[in-house]
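Researcher: Here's a chain I'd like modeled. Treat it as a single chain, no partners, no ligands.
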Amino acid sequence: MGVLLLVLGALGALVAIVVIAVIIMYNGFVSRRNRVQDAWAQIDVQLKRRYDLIPNLINSVKGYMKYEKGVLTKVTELRSSIVSGSTQEKATANNQLTGALKTIFAVAENYPDLKASQNFMDLQHQLEDTEDKIAFVRTSYNDYVMDYNNALQQFPGNVFASRFKFSKADFFQAPEEEKKPVKVDFDDDNSDPGTDASQNSPNAQKKASKK
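Model: Modeled as a single isolated chain. Structure tokens:
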């Protein structure tokens, strides 16, 4: 009888240890997932801030950039993508939008009046500041995602994660092709974008040659 009690006591202690371990593991999953969600919320705030700034930027530059309508259209199309879709879809749209905005700012170098506009300079500063904040919180987010995913995939977490309905989180990063340096190409015509289009017409060139 004494042996039986000892065995039952040992089994009870083992069950208690397992239950406590499972509770700790479950709470650990919850804490890690909450950190991921909190970091993602911070990214989302910056993405929405960028979303709100873009219409003002488009209105500021469209009167100057007559030769870059395709870039402005691309920015407008990407704008809605940064606040909808999955994490990876938002990440892809965000990186493509960064490239398109870099193109706008590069083209602006050819427009002295635009560069001197206080409104444009303020928007440029705010967008660059937003991009810096996105890059900063993205690093924290990805660190939390790695910690969370490791906990789900490593033993013994992988045994219980699916039972508790915890699933992997996505990293906020660009696909490989989006990590390449942004190429700014203005070989539409090799003229100065700030020059009036009529000056580049064949008739204008003939008049210039006569002179």
